[in-house]
Specification:
Length: 455
Amino acid sequence: MPRPLRVAIVGAGPAGIYAADALLKSDTAAEPGVSIDIFERMPAPFGLIRYGVAPDHPRIKGIITALHQVLDKPQVRLFGHVNYGTDVHLDDLRSFYDAVVFSTGAMFDRELRIPGVELDGSFGAADFASWYDGHPDVPRTWDLSAGKVAVLGVGNVALDVARILAKTAEELLPTEIPANVHEGLKANKAVEVHVFGRRGPAQAKFSPMELRELDHSPNIEVIVNPEDIDYDEGSIAERRKNKQTDMVAKTLENWAIRDVGDRPHKLFLHFFESPVEILGEDGRVVGLRTERTELDGTGNVTGTGRTTDWDVSSVYRAVGYLSDELPKLPWDTVSGTVPDEGGRVMEGEEHMASTYVTGWIRRGPVGLIGHTKGDANETVANLLADFAAGRLLTPSHPEEDAVVAFLEGKGVTYTTWDGWYKLDAAEKALGESQGRERVKLVEREEMLRASGAID
Ligand SMILES: Cc1cc2nc3c(=O)[nH]c(=O)nc-3n(C[C@H](O)[C@H](O)[C@H](O)COP(=O)(O)OP(=O)(O)OC[C@H]3O[C@@H](n4cnc5c(N)ncnc54)[C@H](O)[C@@H]3O)c2cc1C
Ligand SMILES: NC(=O)c1ccc[n+]([C@@H]2O[C@H](COP(=O)([O-])OP(=O)(O)OC[C@H]3O[C@@H](n4cnc5c(N)ncnc54)[C@H](OP(=O)(O)O)[C@@H]3O)[C@@H](O)[C@H]2O)c1
């Protein structure tokens, strides 16, 4: 009797779940069948959809509903609260599975190397997003005492951070934010949020819809300085080539020429201001120094030497995410990703047998949830080609019970897909008691208990 192809997926974010979906939809799923185990370090699945996507984006959070259908399939098991590198290692996975797909994404802040980043009041956007999204592994409180705040970077994460800071706690209450986050936001003193791009409007990485959304809050006045609207040949070419860039630039132009209204919270979008130093006094942020830049003809900028000090007392660095290096896998220190060819993990010129990678850990921390689907399809196509060609390693214990016995033998507490249903129900019940759709549980122990993993 041929046995099913056994695949381990490490990371239950969208990339990992789309990889499972691609495996289930392949010919191999029919004959001789596939059997997939997903290992996830958090007690709950869904990666950055749960712990990155902003709480006031319920439509995007709703992608979870589509991903549910994959995890509902009988060929897929979830082992949550299991960390690759401590609870389970590469050699363990090799002994249970024909192939391992790593889809561990990114959850940390990329470093910004300017003086002052270590000061109190200087925050990473990833840490802040983890806080407002109720991640169990970050502090429960957040210092929101600053009246004037700077956000560095002009990508969608910067927009999320600026919007959450500029909205009122009551605007965010109908979302799934946990009680500690609502309490924290009630104390938010921010009335001015200054977002800084080091290049121009045509180089902003905002999505047009996310940008326009800033203007939808009755509490946020978005302000653009007309002097910050500038394009060179490179910018013009980019606007012609890319419809989204053009839409973003047009929105910014419209905001630059309109009258400033009287909504209480001012959100300034500045361009051509490159952060050079976070200013401090007694270990705390008291300002931000930026250098004015100008376009060089190609869409890049050069410094002018003219600096401005901005009177802000918190600085959020939204200059990109960073992945965690994975034990026993090769690592590209420049891109912060696992080197690959078509999703096959590469050690120099060689494919590391039976080892694959997909999503942000493969591509780097750029792109939308939808983009991880195509990425997963490519990786899985190559995995299946290797399977068909007989290139996969043979595991010593491919039977499904073996990994369960291994985890239990090691005393690893794990959550299951059935456990997610229980946690989901518990969060919805908590929400219902407050007239809200869901309220997230934050503490790991509470999550484990609600999932039925511990008593
Ligand atoms: C703040 C923020 C907001 C975003 N908002 C949107 C949005 O509104 N719309 C949109 O389309 N895109 C959004 N994105 C982009 C989107 O989140 C990513 O494209 C997508 O999540 C990448 O998927 P992934 O599966 O590669 O990684 P992730 O979503 O990061 O998933 C990786 C998973 O692997 C797990 N993991 C990591 N290490 C280990 C380990 N050692 N062992 C076991 N498990 C591990 C993690 O816990 C996580 O669950 C946002 C991104 C950020 C950062
Ligand atoms: N709602 C959504 O759809 C949503 C929400 C959040 C995130 N996402 C996606 O998630 C991905 C990651 O988003 P992101 O915002 O983290 O990354 P991003 O889109 O790459 O934006 C990073 C920003 O940081 C700037 N930056 C980098 N280094 C800098 C430095 N040293 N000094 C000043 N500025 C610097 C970049 O400017 P330069 O261009 O000049 O380098 C850029 O403006 C993106 O694909 C994004 O679209 C989507």
